[in-house]
Each structure stands twice: as structure tokens, then as C-alpha cells.
Design goal:
5-stranded antiparallel sheet, alpha+beta, disordered N terminus, single chain, about 350 residues, Glutamine Phosphoribosylpyrophosphate, subunit 1, domain 1
Amino acid sequence: MRHLVILTDSRRTGVAFKRTQTMKKHILFLLFFSLFFQKNFSLQAQNIKTFRIPALVIHGGAGTILKENMTSAQEGAYHAKLIEALNAGYEILESGGSSEEAVVSTIIIMENSHLFNAGKGAVFTSEGINEMDASIMNGANGSAGAVAGVKTIKNPVLAARAVKNNSVHVMMSGAGAEIFARDQNLELVDPSYFYTQRRKSQLEKLQQAEKSKEEGSLNRWKDYKYGTVGAVALDKNGNICAATSTGGMTNKKYGRIGDSPVIGAGTFANKSCGVSATGHGEYFIRNVVAYDIAARMEYKKISLGDAAEEVIMDKLRSIGGSGGIIGLDARGNISMIFNTPGMYRGYIQKNGKAKTLIYK
């Protein structure tokens, strides 16, 4: 015999109230999700989850890079050089070469170009000379090498690799690093090799603005310090390597050295991820940015993308630090996070074509 349940008015009211509350919760959840998605969509687009190896990601510096300040010819030149660099590195990876070989070959392409603030395109110091820094770290064995303040080494990334592989040290600087490079049979050039009129003009305009204390002019030139090149690669054996090279900050004084040659600040790699940074070096050094991202992945058990967003978008930005990073994890997931208007960047993965981007 079935029991007939008759709801009293009070019970009917209670059921209706519960249904109304449930509907309100669903609506609030949908509103929250919509707002969160809108806020984070552009940022999330910089995290590419594909689980493809081999993989390679590069950057050519971050800063105030705006489309309205770029001609179509300039845009095309940057895209073409980034693609050339990606293809050079990926060819090595696809043929079974190591991630270390790939990042070095990739960065040499960019160091030999006048477009980027590294090697041939290095900016000038306050004394009108070019001083360059570079570093490299192999995540498979934790080995690392760096050079700083060099003036005659054509490709500083080669010198950084030589320090890593052929010495008991991690970092060499100045004249000593150049003597070591000569002993390693690396190509040395006359300092005039690094002269470009474009960089010289940037220095002169910045110095003139400083002398006249023209605030608008100083703001106009402030982002020339953000130029750097970097690469992170994951090879077919699952090994990660990261490298970074730069000409430093326009008009820098007193032998200033930024984050690019500092292992853990501008470059870091282990068996879980690799990171190369670009930005205002002093902030990246004080916050050990590249290592911090790797540490958050390990200790908080979060993804590369989440770790990079925490450091670049939250921590750095909260203290006035500007710049970005590129990174790869052991599964081939790519992160390209920056808190500036633009960053020259690109990536290429297994069975894929090189993709390059400039603006946010």
C-alpha cells in the first residue's frame, strides 16, 4: 500500500524557498565564472597546453611595444627573425639533438641580428660602449654558466656555454671572461662590430632628456632597458635547457649587471621546467624570478602557467616590477607571461609550425 504524502502550506513554502536559494546559487556561480573568464582570457591565452615534445619557446624582450608605434615593415622583420630562430632550434630538436644545442643555436640567430638588444643589437652604456651578458642552464644535470660585462665576444651565449662545460666556475666577467673565450677559440670581434646607429641615437636622445630633465622624454625612452633574448627547449629525451642573452640597460653606469647572467633570476632550468626572463633586471634579481616560478611548481604542486602568473602578474606587478618570462615544463606545456604592453615571442612544437607574436 502506497503512502500518500500531503504537503502542508508551510512545507510547500519551505520547498519553494530551497528551490529559490538553489537557483540563486547557480546564477551567482554563472556570473562569477563569466567575470573570471573575461578578466583572465587574454592572460590564459599565453599558456599553451599540448603535451608535445620536442618543443621550443623564445622571446626577444618585453616592454612598451605598441602596434601604433610599429610599421608593417618593422613588424614583418621581427616576425621573420623570430621564425628563423625558431626553425634553427627546432631543426636540431627534430633531428634528435639536445635542448642545449637548440637554445644556443636559436639565440645565436638573435644575437647576430640588429633587431634585438643582444649581441649585434646591444644597447650602449653611458660611456658609449656595448657591454653584454648571457647565461645558460641545463635542467638535466643542473649545470650552468654565465658571462657578464663582455665587450668583444661576438656571441656571448657561446661563452656562457663554454663556462658551463669547460670550467669549474659558473660566472665570469669582463676582461677575464674575454681571455677565457679567447682560450676556448671563440670568435672575438672589435667593439665597433656592435655599433648600430639606431642604438646610438637611442642613447643620445635619452642622455639629452636627462640633461634637460624632460619628463615626457624620459618616459618615452624608459623601456629600452627591457630588451633581452631568451630560449627554452625540451628535447626528445625529455631534457630542458634555458638560456638568456642581453646588452643590458641603455645608458647603464658603473658596470651595472642585470638579471640575465644571474642563474635563478634571469635563467633557470631543472627536470621540471625551464625559464628565461626579460624585464627590469633589478626586480628580477631581488625576487629570484626564474627560480621562484620553478619553486612554486614544486612546493605548491601547481602548473607552470599558474606559477608564472603568480610571480609576474601578482608578485612583481605589486612592487612595480615590469617584464615577462617564457617557460616550458617537462610535458611540453608552454608559458609566455608578461605584464607589459608587449613581448616579442614565439614557439614551435612537434608536428607544428612556428608561431610568433608581439602584442598582448
